[in-house]
Amino acid sequence: TPGVRPLIAGNWKMHGSLAETASLAGAVREGAAKAGAAELLVCPPFPYIHLVAGQGGLAVGGQDCHAAAKGAHTGDVAAAMLKDIGASYVILGHSERRADHAESDRAVRAKAEAALAAGLTPIVCVGESEAQRLAGEAEPVVTGQLDGSLPDGFAQAGGVVAYEPVWAIGTGRTPTEPDIAAIHAAIRANLAKRFGAAGQGLRILYGGSVKPGNAKAILALPHVDGALVGGASLVAADFVAIAAAA
Ligand code: PEP
Questions:
Q1: At what angle do helices 138-149 and 177-195 cross, to 10 degrees?
Q2: Ligand 1 pocket test target in 228, 239, 242 with most atoms within 8 Å of CB
Q3: Does 164 participate in catalysis according to the annotation?
Q4: Atom of ligand 1 nearest to the CA of 227
Q5: What pLDDT digit, counting tens, does each position of 155-205 carry?
Q6: Which amino acid positions bind substrate, per UniProt (predicted)?
Q7: CATH number for the segment(s) 7-47+58-234
């Protein structure tokens, strides 16, 4: 999208030891100079966020947060805590959380509201299953998830949408370029309809088996304003190469 700085986000999921995470973050930071104009973000597991945050050159995010500001929620993490240790983003509604923790659109929306209240930028994930894609329902599924998951303050706060077809995550498979472009156009139309001019400038990331080899073609598609990268973000050289393609 013209005038929009691409965002290349690494989702490190539940990978890495303390030592591996420190070394990966260091390698990404060293490579960042080669990454060109794109903004680089990494989302480590909660215990390692503080290790990676606050050293410059790299934005840091959480992979989830709770909808409440604080309270009796054993094992959960508040958005303000993430902000406090140096995170500026939080991934919400990733398909693995929607599947593993039965997170509904409504739950994701409540979390996004908490993120906004804490001053974090939410990255809200949406995407169809393979069965939905095969049934020709990808577009209505995705726009329905947007309607249910995005809070009203989303655009004003510069929220990010990540389109991640569930069947493309970690599988090495991706939709065709026209299919990616079609969904991104539908997401843009949905954001513009709901949020007006503010929706035109929001970043829409593609996620699902992005690699150095396919990044350039995907990132060149209209309304693809960056990538959310899982597996390839665990290899610093690959992650930086994807950023350089943006
Ligand atoms: C993800 O889980 O956000 C993701 C895009 O994973 P991968 O790049 O490994 O498909």
A1: 30
A2: 228
A3: yes
A4: 5
A5: 999 999 999 999 999 999 999 999 999 999 999 999 999 999 999 999 999
A6: 11-13, 170, 209, 230-231
A7: 3.20.20.70
Closest atom, ligand 1, to C-alpha of 91: 3
Please give the angle made by the CA atoms of 129, 115 and 24, to the nearest 5 degrees: 75
State whether ipTM is beyond 0.95. yes
* Catalytic-role residue among 39, 94, 139, 223: 94
* 107: its two tokens: 């739950």
Using the mean position of ligand 1's atoms as its centre, give its distance from the Cα of residue 71 in Å.
Answer: 31
Token pair of 2 as six digits: 């013209």
Looking only at the bridges linking them, the beta strands covering 226-229 and 59-62 are unpaired
Tell me the whole-structure pTM to 2 decimals. Answer: 0.98
Binding residues for substrate: 11-13, 170, 209, 230-231
**Percent of the chain with pLDDT strictly greater than 70:** 100
Task: Reply yes or no on whether 94 is catalytic.
Answer: yes
Among residues 113, 139, 164, 184, the one annotated as catalytic is: 164
Tens-digit pLDDT profile for residues 60-89: 999 999 999 999 999 999 999 999 999 999
Ligand 1 touching residue 209 (CB < 6 A): yes
Q: Is 229 in the pocket of ligand 1 (CB under 6 A)?
A: yes
125 bridge partner residues? 162
Phi then psi dihedrals of residue 53, to 5 deg = -80, 155
- Mean pLDDT, range 1-6, rounded to an integer: 92
Q: What is the pLDDT of residues 130-153, one digit of tens each?
A: 999 999 999 999 999 999 999 999
